[in-house]
């Protein structure tokens, strides 16, 4: 079994920084965490990439093509379609050229996939889902990590709309899912307090605030109330704050994702296998 985190979220929400932070944390804790860049428009990232989609196709290829004439967003969608069509390229990067060799190997690869910020790839287009299915067919267990900038989550109306964005990714990808609030280190004390309140959401206090001074909130008070109740009643969406300056915060979040991926649990099973009765062990000799 191999493990994958698919890092998604709106433009600039901190996906690539999350990948660097986790890779560095892995390095510090003697754990191998690899990162694959699947953003064909990436200019810069500070992690060491195991593979890079720009070796296959670059956004400029789609935009400068005489026939395609794509703008930046359409071009990006094209690049991801191209990736799915040329899945053998990705497979070779992840599985080695000859996958015969990989069969039967106890593999505990742990790979983060840094995705582009075009959220539509994951809310209603099919490429996000196709990518997940490909990874599963290559023996990966996949967890989606949805990043949202915490600076935009410190008022009730935005919190609701951020939650809905997370929910549409969850509904489309149908994978184990963790929502991360990034850049918590940038919040001042008041904003942190506000955020804490939302993290254990009491729908009524949240929505009481939404309806004040927000045209949408006032007009659709009942709707927002119903949405809030839905989210609360079904425990649909939870957020984990990430302060990338705080090792403990990083470690806690990784532990959370690990447990969703059941990472490490297979290792326990293997240890137990060794405790088989004596004669079973003799047979192996
Ligand atoms: N202070 C602080 N800045 C952050 C953090 N995460 C991201 N940033 C900054 O936010 C900006 C965007 O971060 P990226 O990691 O590039 O975001 P992204 O989601 O990969 O962006 P796109 O790939 O363009 O969609 C950069 O200037 C980062 O330095 C954080 O945890 N703390
Ligand atoms: Mg990025």
From TrEMBL:
<keyword id="KW-0342">GTP-binding</keyword>
<dbReference type="InterPro" id="IPR030228">
    <property type="entry name" value="Gpn3"/>
</dbReference>
<dbReference type="Pfam" id="PF03029">
    <property type="entry name" value="ATP_bind_1"/>
</dbReference>
<dbReference type="GO" id="GO:0005525">
    <property type="term" value="F:GTP binding"/>
</dbReference>
<dbReference type="InterPro" id="IPR004130">
    <property type="entry name" value="Gpn"/>
</dbReference>
<comment type="subunit">
    <text>Binds to RNA polymerase II (RNAPII).</text>
</comment>
<comment type="function">
    <text>Small GTPase required for proper nuclear import of RNA polymerase II and III (RNAPII and RNAPIII). May act at an RNAP assembly step prior to nuclear import.</text>
</comment>
<comment type="similarity">
    <text>Belongs to the GPN-loop GTPase family.</text>
</comment>
<comment type="function">
    <text>Small GTPase required for proper localization of RNA polymerase II (RNAPII). May act at an RNAP assembly step prior to nuclear import.</text>
</comment>
<dbReference type="GO" id="GO:0003924">
    <property type="term" value="F:GTPase activity"/>
</dbReference>
<protein>
    <recommendedName>
        <fullName>GPN-loop GTPase 3</fullName>
    </recommendedName>
</protein>
<keyword id="KW-0378">Hydrolase</keyword>
<dbReference type="InterPro" id="IPR027417">
    <property type="entry name" value="P-loop_NTPase"/>
</dbReference>
<keyword id="KW-0547">Nucleotide-binding</keyword>
């Amino acid at each position: 079994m191999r493990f994958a985190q698919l890092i998604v979220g709106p433009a600039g929400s901190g996906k690539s920084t999350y990948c660097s932070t986790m890779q560095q944390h892995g390095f510090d804790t003697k754990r191998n965490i690899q990162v694959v860049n699947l953003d064909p428009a990436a200019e810069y990232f500070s992690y060491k990439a195991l593979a890079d989609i720009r070796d296959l196709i670059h956004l400029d290829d789609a935009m400068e093509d005489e026939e395609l004439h794509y703008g930046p967003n359409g071009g990006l969608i094209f690049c991801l379609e191209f990736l799915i069509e040329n899945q053998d390229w990705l497979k070779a990067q992840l599985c080695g050229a000859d996958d015969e060799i990989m069969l039967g190997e106890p593999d505990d690869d742990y790979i983060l996939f840094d995705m582009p910020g075009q959220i539509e790839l994951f809310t209603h287009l099919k490429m996000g889902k196709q990518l997940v299915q490909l990874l599963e067919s290559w023996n990966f267990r996949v967890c989606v990590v949805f990043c949202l900038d915490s600076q935009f989550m410190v008022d009730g109306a935005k919190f609701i709309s951020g939650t809905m964005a997370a929910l549409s990714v969850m509904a489309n990808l149908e994978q184990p899912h963790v929502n991360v609030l990034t850049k918590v280190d940038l919040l001042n004390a008041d904003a942190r307090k506000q955020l804490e309140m939302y993290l254990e959401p009491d729908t009524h206090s949240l929505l009481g605030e939404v309806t004040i001074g927000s045209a949408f909130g006032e007009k659709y008070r009942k709707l927002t109330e119903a949405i809030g109740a839905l989210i609360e009643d079904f425990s649909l969406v939870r957020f984990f704050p990430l302060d990338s300056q705080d090792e403990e915060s990083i470690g806690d979040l990784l532990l959370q994702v690990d447990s969703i991926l059941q990472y490490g649990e297979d290792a326990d099973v293997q240890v137990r296998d060794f405790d088989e009765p004596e004669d079973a062990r003799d047979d192996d000799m």
